[in-house]
Amino acid sequence: MDVSHLLDGLNEPQRKAVAAGEGPILVLAGAGSGKTRVLTHRVAWLVQAFSYSPLSILAVTFTNKAASEMRGRIEHMLGFPVGGMWMGTFHGLSHRLLRAHWQEAGLPQSFQIIDSDDQKRVIKRLIAAMELDDSYWQPKQGQQFINHHKEAGRRARDVHAGHDPQQQQWTKVYQEYEDYCQRAGIVDFSELLLRSWEMMHNNEILRQRYRERFRAVLVDEFQDTNSIQYRWLKEFVGPQSHIMVVGDDDQSIYSWRGAQVENIRKFENDYSGTEMVRLEQNYRSTSTILNAANAVISRNEGRMGKTLWTDGEEGELIRLYAAFNEVDEARFTVDRIKTWVEQGNLRAEVAILYRSNAQSRSFEEALFNAAVPYRVYGGLRFFERAEIKDALAYLRLTLNHDDDTSFERIVNVPTRGIGNRTLDIVRQHARSHSQTMWHSASDLIQGSELTARAANALRSFLELIDALSTQMADLELFEQVEQVLGETGLLVFHGNAKGEKAETRVENLKELVTAARNYYQDEEEEMDPLSAFLAHASLEAGEGQADAWEDCVQLMSLHSAKGLEFPLVFLTGLEEGLFPSQHALNDPSRLEEERRLCYVGMTRAMQQLYISYAEVRRLYGRENYTTPSRFLQEIPAETIEEIRTRNGAYQTPWQGSQGFENDSSAQAENGLSLGSRVLHDKFGEGVIMNIEGKGEHTRVQVNFESVGIKWLVLSFARLTGL
Question: Hey, what's the torsion of the CAs at 648, 652, 657, 659, to 10 degrees?
Fold first, then answer.
């Protein structure tokens, strides 16, 4: 079969990676170098050139969206569906394994997945049950302790707490948590990986079965793998397996959630005979932006080494703006965006990037005041909304009455007279009898510990869930969701609330029916549609953006920006202690990751890049005098055009020598403007940092040398220019 067409449109390094032999391959793919293109073409090449069956290929991505896009591209190239191909995230594939081998994994067939919020709630209840003070033994800290050890492959019994009393206590909490989850038949996200790895690692027959099935293993974003994910992958790679990993050590920015850049660096040692291919041609950014980004990242030591280049245009210089404060920074950014739109461009082509989410406030305020639509990328997602989680909890409980997390969430939603005292009695009974809350509630209804009113309320709740379980048996998936929303009273409950939120919540619940109606179950998933849908909801939580239809400016943290690209990018807050962060200033490894984050931010820009910093910034309730980020000093001077203000006008080649005037709020009527030095008869000399209002209502913010920052009404301040 002639497969040469699969190499059409690829550059030479891309062709080398796609058409490589069947040994281990490490593809170092720089930002914007076409790594997804290489991965999809590689799969097609394995199928058509090496006669691999799609069923024999395991492809791991870091988001379900990426997996869906790759699958679509592969099917387009091959001309036939590849539904049986295992392609998805680590968590999604682990879930698939556990569903297929629940007995080998030591789980009940109807096990359910809990998300991060529910996991924290469970830990909080356990801390209370252990009679620990949760102001000191904080649930969030316990959650981090447990997930950290799970991601390192350690059970509670494997944790070596030594003589540290705090570590010893958290280990006991971890053990209690493990026992609780096993009893309730629930697994958290970290458990999906750990449990499936343990199953594969300890079951030789199962391991060999999957190694024989999967002739090829391909991994995207390999630099973001953590310890358990890397070990998980190794279980599928036998002596006869082909493995290709694609990643970029310069874009490893997730160490805070367990990612280990060392994994990509040690791949060659773990897989002898590894062929390395570097993808360095960038198809996204101008050469000016790439030269600046290369210069910054080159300061990091221990890199595997590559230099991005493009045969595209040189492009415009990077604009650097020194703002007086965060308000001035936001105003400048919004002015630039307005000019961009006036020139016929879309707002959706613009991204404002920041190191800390707290920085978004000033930009949101400035955009709102200027009537510029915007969206905070990564806001609350659909499956994370409270009303949706309530509905999902009902659905889970109809399938698995022993799901304590779901039981507690909705036992009194809508309110049905089951108060905290009643629940405390049920919890205590469950703990003392090693039962689930459902069974304890059933027992207590028959006894005398509860009041007649509480017992009747509990009985009604249990009967409701039992009735739903029976009624839903023969219904279509979306009809099951409709049945739950109607019979439980959730729609009426949220509809009767006041305000716009009530309407929004009802709309969201109705959208859940649409999601169920449109849900497509993978043919190889051996479970009922409702179980599959609930697993899908848990795994999708945290992915996908909502309400993104409007042409609006995108605001996001630098971590959220990875993998995205925009014609116009504003990289903001380049100040020591903010970016790089305060925690990184005395930690070389953290500083290198901050530099990688800066590199990621710069390479999001396709055509124009603005970088800004503020001389004074109010953040987290404090006002700080700042120092420009060291990263600014690492950018070659020939790639930067500094923008200064002069009498309220921004001077920049983009607008020509005329510049453009600030609005009246940036320049007072008496000629004083941002940056003007002034004298006050009481406070002495200072510099104007901000100006608000017009006419007699104009206020100025002045940083005085003797007394610090003061807000003054200009008409009464008696300021004179110096």
Answer: -40
